[in-house]
Each structure stands twice: as structure tokens, then as C-alpha cells.
Amino acid sequence: MHIRKYDAGFSRRQFLERTAKGVVAAGVLQPLWPLIANAQDTAKAYPEELQSIDAYTKGKIKTGDIVDAGNVDIVKDLLDPITFKQIKEMGRRIKIVKTATDPLVLNSNKYLEATVRNAGKAKLDGAGNVVTQDGKRWIGGNPFPNAKTGEEVYANLSLSWGRNDVGFYALRDCDISPSGEIAYKYDFCWVEQNVAGLTSDPNKPYLEGFDDMLRFQTVFFSSPNDVRGTSFLSNHFYDQSKFPDLFGYLPAFKRERRFPTNQRFEPLVPGLTLFLSDAWHAGDPMLTWGNYKIVDTKPHLAAAGSNWHGDRPGWEPEVHGGPKGISFYEYEYELKPEVLVIDSEPTGYPRAPVGKRRTYVDVRNMQGLVSNTYDRRGELWKLVEAPYGRYERNGKTVKDGNGEVVWSVQSCMAHDIQSNRLSRFYMAEEIGGGYKPSWNSGNLYEQFLTIQAIRRLGSS
């Protein structure tokens, strides 16, 4: 039987063959990375079946349609198992939008510029850390934009979590109980500052004075009153085999304390299902995990970059689904033409409750889309999902300290399907304590990212 070159199964056969051979080569019709490097439309790299849900499903689902329990089986192969379960059994729905193809929409502009500028300058040293060809710390952007291995993919995720040099995230959280009701509500700030691989100024890839560090990160709670001032500080070393220093300030005890490494697999406050280890699908240094393996290459349905709701009061997304109709955010999804599925294991944490993490990564920007974790028995445990994109909607925009339209994480859902507890939080316009989000707006180290700072935050 004659098989047409670009029939409906052509791309899938290509992906299966590559995965079986251990070959990673982004793009189907032509290499993807040269298109992105020249700011050309990524559509040139893929046949129609990978760019249009209409073509992929032969019209059974179309752009603009809602996927719910009644039709989700049509696209089961395009979803991770927990998202499928949410839609099939728990009342979640998603809206399909057109696939974005502009590299400037798919990436933070400064970060993309640095990725293009520094392409080919990275390598993994003998210990597995990313360095430049002359052995220095990384100088900005994705070190491996055309990654060939699971380790290289995770290097892209690990060296710059939020794709901004400095991020001050003001987040409003609701923790949903198994009965579908709000069990806890928190306002908290997530502050991170990279000190290596900076992209705002091509001539200044490092923040002086921190030669052995990669980033500093603080999370502190501003409401309700019973947790206000609770703060945690993580100091991440550039050597990705070193465990972060983790300090916390607990207002009830009026002192800070050092926490053990396994605290990264526990909730910071009651009800929160996102652990420090889960953050950005790469919350721990990449060399404290191991056995990285690309297990699949596939098209995938995942959150689009259009899920910032700056045209709504406080930027709050709408919710739906679950027993009380408030469990899930309303997300717009798009067909991602090529996604790498990466398995990894917490080899450096013998008491970790996680057995395996499976992460879905968009090759067009090397950004994590969703991850599923499995417990030590091999049972599905938790989903972490977070859309990233530009902060622009219906004429409203937010700009960063460089004058660029913000490209950042927009919200997050972390669903423990074993207990059926779910945390969802979004980037709010303002939270308790008067905190507002900002990006690349000055040095936040002294104010938020030292032991003295978290002590001050907890005492205020």
C-alpha cells in the first residue's frame, strides 16, 4: 500500500522513529531552531496536522471548541493522564485556541535575544554543570535551544526558572478540599533573583559578589494573619549537585531556622499542595535528580500563552468544575506541535516521597508545560500546570523594568489526585500587604533575599 508522505500519521511516525533511536531534532519539515533564531514563523517547521486541532482530529474538534467529558476521548493522546482525568471525571473543561507561531510571542524577548546571541557557547562540564566553552558560568538564555538529551532539556528549565532576571510574584491562592470547597486562602509573594545568566544587559551576565551562586529565592506569606510573616529563603548554588540552603522564619517562634533538604517535599503551610521541589517543574538543582530520559516526542494540548486576565478585576481568572464548581481555572489550550516528554528521578533524596517526575516540554521555547509526579509505588500522584505568556489582553499590557511587555508565568494549579486536594493561585494585580508584581525592576537582594530580610518580613 502506498503511504503518502504527509498523511495524517506522518509526524507521529517521525516522532516514534526519533524516540526509538534516541534522536532529538526539533522540527519536522525543516529544522526549527534556525527559524526561531531568525524570528521566522515556526509554522514552516511543521505540517498542518501539528498546527491545527481541526486537521489533527479531522474536524471532530475545531479551534474555538470546548473540550469536556463528552468529547475528551477524541484528544486523549494529546493530554497528560491527570489532565485527561480532570476533564473526563471531574468536570474540568478547556477551550481550544489557535496555535501561536510567532517566536516573539512564545518567548520573553530579552531571554530570546540572549538565547540567540549565545547559541553554541554552552557545554556540560565533567560534573554535569552548564558552563561556557571556556569554563565560566552560563551567560544567559537557553544554553541548549536545540537540546539533544534529557539533561540538556533540564538545564534549560533549571538555570532560569521564570525567564526573567528578577521576578516579584504577588500570588493569590485558594486550596480546594476533596469536597470541592475552599479549605484555605493565602496571599503570598514569590521573589527570585538570578545572579548568573542575566539577560537584561548583554555586557553584564553576572551580579557581582556571588561567584558560586545561581539564584536567591524567597517565599513569604502576607495573609491571613495566622501565617502572615511566615517566610522561606532558598539559596541555590551554581554547582547543581549541591543542595540549596533552606532557611525559614516562623513568627510564632520569633526566630529563623535551617530546614533539612527533605523539607522541599512538604507543604510550606497547611493545605498547599505545591512543594518547593515542584516549582517550575524544576524546583531542585538538576544534579540532585537523575536518570533523565526522553521517553516520547509528540504533539500535545496544553495551556496557551493567552491566560493572563488583565481585563478582569484584580486579574483573577474565572473558575469552574469540581463538586462545587470552583475547582479549576478556565484555561485556553493550544495544540503544541512538538513536545518532549522527560522522565527523571530524585536520586539525591533517599527519603523523597516522589518516585518519578514526568515533564512535558515545548521545544519551541524549552519551557515546561505540565508535569505529573508518581509516588514511590509508581502510582500517579500530582499534577503541576502553569501557563506562561505575554501580559497583554484586550488592549491592556504590563511592562517590566526593561520597558518590555512582561512574559511570565500567569497562574498555577497543583492537584494531588490521591487526596483530591488542589491548590490554584494566580498572579494578582495586588495582594494583602499592598504587594504588587514586578519584573526586572532593580536589585531585590537586600530587601527580600537574605536571612535578615526574612526576619524583618516576619517581624513587620
From TrEMBL:
Coiled coil: none annotated. Pfam families: DUF1329. InterPro entries: DUF1329, TAT_signal, TAT_signal_bac_arc. Gene3D superfamilies: Lipoprotein localisation LolA/LolB/LppX. This is DUF1329 domain-containing protein. It comes from Zavarzinia aquatilis. The lineage of its organism: Bacteria, Pseudomonadati, Pseudomonadota, Alphaproteobacteria, Rhodospirillales.
